Amino acid sequence: MEITVQQVELLSDDDYIYLDVRGEIAYQHGHIPKAYEWAGDFSRIEELPKDKRLIVYCNYGEKSALIAEQLRQEGYEAFNLSGGYREWLLHVTSQKEQMQDVSKDGWHLFSSTEELTPDEVKRYDRQIILPQVGSDGQKKLEELEESILTRRKEQESCEKKISGENDRLFSIMNTSSDTKEKLSRYAAMEEQLEIRNAEYNSRYISFNSELKEYNETAEELLKQQDAAKEAFEKQENLYQELEKREEHLQEKEQKYQDEMGNLNQEYLRTKSRYETLMNITERYDGYNQSIRRIMEQKNVNPGIIGVVADILALPEKYETAIEIALGGALQNIVTEDNETAKKMINFLKKNRFGRATFLPLTNIRRRNSTISPSVLQDEGVIGIASTLVKVEERFQALVDSLLGRTVVVDTVDHALSLSRKNNFSLRLVTLDGELLNPGGAITGGAFRHSGKA
After folding, report:
1. Alpha-carbon gap, residue 166 to 174, rounded angstroms
2. Which of 57, 65, 126 shows the shortest CA–CA distance to 86?
């Protein structure tokens, strides 16, 4: 919205203020009275009052129109001064010229009376006026003459004032001429400044836009950085956890490898032993000739079950103790009945193959254990030998008769202590193969071929 200089003069002085947006240099060389210098810096917009109309002007009104529009968008009642500062100067100059014309008219009015001197006026009065008015009017003429003299004095006083005013007006006009020349020069400078200011404003707006985009981008990058940092910390924690797990797994792997190595060695030893035992079992190597000959007849004599060792199954840790407890009974031949036993005895006699002990199942009866339960509670006692082996149910009575009166103890020291407590009445065997018989006899040492103690 635009407003003219004439419209501004109709407003109350307290209702508006002028805003000079031409720049500090142009403002210092001349500005509208009581105008505020404001270079359009919107970062200082809070300094402007909102309770008054803002009359914005530049040199020609173009730049100020844009700033007034921006101020209205910010909520101010802003007007662009039509024609700008140049229009205001033309208006003021026009007013001064009108005053000068009025002053000149007054000068001519009074100077026209200077054509007659006072003596000429008196002579004119005596020769022309007095004969016409007569003696009665002379008094009035004298009074009129005094009045004219008084007016003339007043005229002289006014002429002096008018002369002073004319001098002042001429001085103002000279100053105005100089001012117009300066204004013209300043107008050119202002035009250049406006162009530069417009460029700066454009660059400022562009910079603000770029700054806003930069701030938004920086904010987004900061968020991404925080997210990346958080993700990195999670990955770092996960990596450390995985490293710990890997280290733990490596330790377990090494442990398993060591155990596997030990198991492989144990497996090879066991396999070798098993193959040896299988060979011995199948061929009954190590058994007496009589036993081997009888076992050769097993396929043609169904009543032959096998030797005692064939019917037993037991953990490896008890093998030595059970083997010692059985002694020679390991090679006793188990048969279904007496008939088979007699037939095999005749077979040995006839062929002179030696002697053998037979255990017909029909002759074996289950016996109650004679070992006191308190014995089994003593230190180092593992159990009755017959309870530590596994056999088929039909062989249980046979195993009880062979092992039911033998107690297995962990060490020889515990065995000796237990034997003394029971007056050397028990048959005891240790895991290492020491045998304590009733009466106090102790058998022990190393096997010739196995190396076991």
Report:
1. 12
2. 57
Report DSSP letters for 174-207, one per residue. HHHHHHHHHHHHHHHHHHHHHHHHHHHHHHHHHH
The DSSP bridge pattern shows strands 435-436 and 442-443 to be antiparallel
Helix axes 138-283, 62-73, angle to 10 degrees: 60
> 81: which strand partners?
3
pTM: 0.41
CA end-to-end distance (rounded Å), the chain: 123
Reported as a single tens digit per residue, the pLDDT across 92-139 is: 877 766 666 555 544 443 343 344 455 554 554 555 445 545 555 666
Top-confidence range, 38-42, 122-126, 445-449: 38-42
Burial class (CB in 10 A: 0-12, 13-18, 19+), 152: middle
Helix then strand then coil, in percent of the chain rounded to 5, is 65, 10, 25
Side chain identity, residue 52: K
Please, which residues bridge with residue 226 across strands?
Answer: none
SS3 (DSSP) at 365:
coil
Report residue 436: phi and psi, to 5°.
-110, 115
Task: Give yes or no for a contact between 429 and 385, defined as CB atoms under 8 angstroms apart.
Answer: yes
| Centroid of chain to Cα 186 | 60
Of 299, 300, 364, 301, give the one whose Cα is nearest residue 329.
Answer: 364
Task: Check: CB of residue 395 under 8 Å from CB of residue 311.
Answer: yes
Distance CA 383, CA 377 (A): 9
Cα dist from 294 to 283, 297, 327, whole Å: 12, 5, 20
Residues pairing with 407 in the sheet: 384, 428
Distance CA 179, CA 364 (A): 152
